[in-house]
Amino acid sequence: MTNVLMARNIRKTYVSGHQAINGVSISIQKGECVGIVGESGSGKSTLARCLLMLEKLDEGEIFLHDQPLHLMTKREIRKIRHRMQAVFQHPASALNPKRKIIDSTMEVLDTYPNITPVYLQDVRDHRELCAKRLLEMVGIESRYLYCYPHELSGGQKQRIVIARAISIQPSVIIFDEPTASLDVYTQGQILTLLKELQEQLELSYLFISHDLPAVYFLSERIFVMKEGIFVDSFKKDDLFSQHRHPYTKKLVNLFEG
Ligand SMILES: Nc1ncnc2c1ncn2[C@@H]1O[C@H](COP(=O)(O)OP(=O)(O)OP(=O)(O)O)[C@@H](O)[C@H]1O
């Protein structure tokens, strides 16, 4: 099996002295969705930011397709960062309010004109058709191409952020609470979209959330985070096993009521 992303023994302490990540290792294989679940403050976002090389690591190694990101200069990282895309909690802050939807959707592809994802091969030379195809893939009508973000709902905005993330056929997409700002109905729609896209395009995901049912729905393997470490990890089907860590059982009980 090929690891698209592998991290070993990641540690991160903030200048405040708070040890947010305390020796975490994780790997994601091609076409796989790996989930991380944990309560607020457990270090999930810090880990996401470390994996994206947006935070300086205190210690640890990160490999993207066997390339050691932790040994690269900022300039070298910039050259391959597009292979890791990210979708965060608030779509409104991920989209420039002054840019039309077509421009936000095409932002990454515009920056890398020599990259052509297999699913855009026939339209890559035609910017508008490319954007239309991407919008279609995330369930947004093409009449929104020349609209601005404020004309779209929260769910629609997150679909645009997802369209931009898949536009470059990245090696991995890191989702950090991508549905947390949406109403329950829209959350379900977005999760279904993410699952369909992952299966159709054979994408690799790291899906991070406090929402255990959402992580369970999408992920093949699940890691449970508490106070900066993984206290449990298992295959999806083993979530309800009696061998689970007491903290995992507590999270399961919370959701089962
Ligand atoms: N820039 C920072 N400086 C100092 N401490 C920070 C910083 N960012 C996060 N922390 C602290 O690190 C810990 C982990 O935060 P983090 O945001 O990674 O957790 P989280 O699991 O994503 O929680 P949430 O879902 O609430 O964002 C928290 O105690 C938080 O207060």
From TrEMBL:
- Protein origin, superkingdom: Bacteria
CDD domains in the cross-refs: ABC_NikE_OppD_transporters
Q: Name one Pfam family in it.
A: ABC_tran
This chain's source organism reads: Thermaerobacillus caldiproteolyticus
UniProt cross-references to InterPro entries, sorted A to Z? AAA+_ATPase, ABC_transp_ATP-bind, ABC_transporter-like_ATP-bd, ABC_transporter-like_CS, P-loop_NTPase
Instruction: Domain (ABC transporter): give its ranges.
Output: 5-252
This protein's name: Peptide/nickel transport system ATP-binding protein
Q: Which PROSITE patterns match?
A: ABC_TRANSPORTER_1 (PS00211), ABC_TRANSPORTER_2 (PS50893)
List, in alphabetical order, the GO biological process terms annotated in this UniProt record.
transmembrane transport
Give the UniProt keywords, A-Z.
ATP-binding, Nucleotide-binding, Transport
